[in-house]
Amino acid sequence: MFVKHAVIIVCLCLILSGCGFRPQYLHSNGGQTTYDFNAVEISIIKDRYGQVLRNSITNFIGEGSHKKTKYIYEIQLDVSHRDLGFEKNLNTSRSEVVLLASYNFWHKDAKHKNIHGYCRTSEYYSQSKTQIFQSISAEKSAPLKGLETLSRCLTDRLVILLKTQQDIAPENK
Question: What is 37-172's CATH topology?
Fold first, then answer.
């Protein structure tokens, strides 16, 4: 039984190594990742939600030293609330939080073009006049869930941007 599992694991390793699989966030012995996140300076994002978003991104990719950065990743965050469901007495029963993060990514020497884009997510929550604590808790946690989704999206975009920069860099030399 053990031999059968070992053979399956070895076969899976061979298949994955033969298909060009390369982990995105693998740390090597030197502390470098597959993509050099230390070369990226993440600009300060205004407001409290911006601080939470920036901290979430830096916790995931690590805080680089700003002396050796080659790229700047600037993010603007827009948070908006919208009421969706109304009762007969015009009380809100359902709300939506829309989080839109637009980003700019460029090389510090400014010879390379500025790349920009955005990530958007929505979170919904219910409001109840009889269960006030539940409504307040849902209202406060909805944006935080959205920020976690946005940080993952922005980190994935950063990986793609760094990959394209690595592919372009040898041609520019």
Answer: Double Stranded RNA Binding Domain (3.30.160)
